Amino acid sequence: MTIDLLAASDAPLRTPWADPDSYWGAMTDAVAGVPAPAAALHLDALRYNALDMLVRAAGVPIRVASKSVRVREVLDAVLRLPGYCGILAFTLPEALWLAEIHGDIVLGYPTVDRAALRVLASDERAASRITLMVDDLAQLDALDAVAPPTGRPEIRVAIDADASWRAPGLGHVGVRRSPVHEAAEVAALARAIARRPGVRVVGLMMYEAQIAGQGDATGAGDPVIRWMQRRSAQELRDRRAAIVDAVRAIAPLEFVNGGGTGSLELTAADQSVTELTAGSGLLAGHLFDGYQAFDPAPAAAFALDVVRRPAPDIVTVLGGGWIASGPPVASRQPQPVWPHGLRTLAREGAGEVQTPLQGRAAAGLALGDRVWFRHAKSGELAERVDAYHLVGAGAPAGTAPTYRGEGKAFL
Ligand SMILES: Cc1ncc(COP(=O)(O)O)c(C=O)c1O
Predict the structure, then answer these.
(1) Ligand 1: centre distance to CA 260 (Å)
(2) Same domain, 328 and 272
(3) Which intervals hold domain Alanine racemase N-terminal (predicted)?
(4) Is residue 180 situated within a structural domain?
(5) Which residue CA neighbors atom 15 of ligand 1 most closely?
């Protein structure tokens, strides 16, 4: 089926998750008869999340982070909404695959994949549709080694500049990605790329992970997080403006990309930025519940079977240990969400093949019943299942294959 998020655009916006009984009941109906583990995606929730992100972006176009979705039909449906533009892909083989259909793909991360670089350099159409990400000339050496500049189409590149905060007294705050941080460093890289044949600088990306990917409504540390994010944002606004000025003096930029789901309103307000990236807020892994500025609907979830009862207040489901990437802390576990009132055990957690769940709801569950979980991260669930079972207007609405279901495993 083709997901059409515009079809219902004149209907009142439904928020069925506000009534958990019927919401999770509809999700359960969508996977009735489907062996567990079974994943479902509620289209009203997806539509709400997609539209809410547009409101938060305040007119600045959003590029969709495909890693946070990994379902082509969902990417296509979101990209049909006015306000979304292009894809931020995560590997070059993925970008080449998506470029068969999509015309504006920025590879969000550097690549040294020789085979994929060779394909890109031998395909005029793909080369016109895909922009590589570069933060080191050695990445372009890898390209030149497989496809000399004279015999290939011009390759589009964007520069990834470090958006982390070098905080006085705290040191590095943010992720470890690009080595170029100051305007002079970024300009030197841009100049060196501009001197090379066979490549053209068309974009700049600066992703402020310490703001966009760090929840500020998660618990006792929130005031410190908010202070850090305020200070980092101030520092970034000036530095990003200086970097953009310096690079624009060397190469006309088609885009300056920034932000993520957690920073849409903040990054949109930065005059240097021409487009945003976001993905996680669409399917809404539960880590994205921990932000003050927005409250995503629980669009994607997966159901597991209750298979045994070790104690009156504990049931055990088969599976569950789909732990999200990142630091190995408790919040990276899937979250049991329905029925309400179940939690994993501290000593066991979500297990490789079994997950005991304790709580008042356990007494009401029988063997064969289902428990719904949300994954911590939005895209990783798609690596575990072949399809999402869709729910539209409260009723089952077909399925959408994941990348895995299409036989694709990119990372
Ligand atoms: C380069 C880049 N931009 C933006 C994002 C934000 O993506 P999301 O909205 O899915 O959190 C990420 C996430 O890691 C990223 O790596």
Answers:
(1) 5
(2) no
(3) 42-219
(4) yes
(5) 207
